[in-house]
Design goal:
The protein is elongated, with a radius of gyration of 23 Å. By secondary structure, it is α/β, with parallel strands linked by helices. Strands 8, 10, 12, 13, 15, 16, 18 and 19 form an eight-stranded parallel β-sheet that branches. Strands 9-11-14-17-21-20 form a six-stranded mixed β-sheet. It has a five-stranded mixed β-sheet with strand order 4-3-5-2-6. The protein has two domains: 117 residues, Spore Coat Polysaccharide Biosynthesis Protein SpsA, Chain A (Alpha-Beta Complex); 95 residues, Hexapeptide repeat proteins (UDP N-Acetylglucosamine Acyltransferase, domain 1, 3 Solenoid), CATH 2.160.10.10. It is built from six helices and 21 strands. The two termini are 41 Å apart.
Length: 289
């Protein structure tokens, strides 16, 4: 299953499909509009869902049978029958192959026993009417990762984390609750053990053990763990990775050319401050105000 994707999935449904279809391999597939399909790996399948081939970001993706305006995108999730996988791996090794996508799957496709599992029909309980009923995001780029984080925000987010019928649990972190000494917060997610002292936070995701000093302004940002933001700093459309200590009076995200000279800036203009390694000996935490 893909490690750089975000989605809600009841794997039992795909397992049931795999067992009932008699397939040797089942591949999760998501229908997307043809106008967007060229950015993804595409599945070419017949009307019964039997996969005929895989196409990597084709200029003219083949349409789904019965849905001419859509193409099947491979989600990178696979279920194998045990013996079929073992036979395919042994055969691949004997023939000198080494790549899953280029050597293993194509040989299985030739046998006609690889089926597409239509994730577009997949449902989980508790999804609200304003959410995307079938949510899937490939977050393999910084821009797509940023956009997925922003989709958690708002009164009616595309992916609502607050779903008691399908809960998403945080890590088992032991620490105090966040302390808002004085703050202005608008449409943001704030993690545990932060100290927000006189800062203004708008439309941002702030993880745990972040310290913001008086006069800080953060907008449309992702702030990772153990970050300290100095007095009077202004950040807009910035990803700040772990263990950064941002000096007082810093301004990032307001002057693109100036930012490019100091930091990595993505195609969409997101400024990225990389993780500080090794972490500073006195890393910012809830204990260091």
């Amino acid at each position: 299953f893909g490690a750089d994707h975000i989605y809600r999935m009841n794997v039992r449904e795909m397992v049931q499909f795999h067992m009932q279809s008699g397939a040797e391999v089942s591949v999760a597939a998501l229908p997307v509009p043809l106008s967007q399909a060229s950015s993804f790996g595409i599945i070419d399948a017949d009307e019964d869902g039997v996969i005929r081939g895989f196409l990597e970001k084709p200029g003219r993706p083949p349409a789904m049978p019965g849905r001419p305006g859509f193409a099947y995108v491979s989600m990178g999730n696979y279920l194998f029958s045990t013996q079929a996988l073992m036979d395919a791996l042994h055969r691949c090794k004997a023939e000198g192959g080494s790549d899953f996508g280029h050597h293993v799957l194509p040989r299985l496709v030739e046998r006609g026993r690889v089926h597409a599992y239509d994730f577009g029909t997949h449902r989980v309980p508790g999804v609200k009417p304003y959410e995307k009923a079938v949510y899937w995001r490939d977050v393999g780029t910084l821009d797509s990762y940023y956009q997925a984080q922003m989709e958690l925000l708002g009164k009616e987010p595309s992916f609502d984390l607050f779903n008691p019928a399908w809960p998403i649990f945080s890590s088992n972190y032991q620490g105090p609750v966040t302390h808002f000494v004085e703050a202005g917060i608008e449409d943001s997610l704030i993690g545990s053990s932060c100290v927000i002292d006189g800062a203004r936070i708008r439309h941002s995701v702030v993880r745990r053990e972040v310290v913001m000093e008086p006069g800080v302004e953060v907008e449309d940002c992702i702030i990772m763990d153990n970050v300290r933001i100095g007095r009077g700093t202004r950040l807009r459309r910035v990803i700040v990775d772990r263990f950064n200590i941002i000096p007082a009076g810093t301004t990032i995200g307001f002057h693109t050319e100036h930012d490019r000279a100091r930091f990595h800036v993505t195609e969409s203009g997101i400024v990225v401050l990389p993780e500080v390694l090794p972490p500073p000996k006195e890393s910012p935490s809830y204990a260091s105000r």
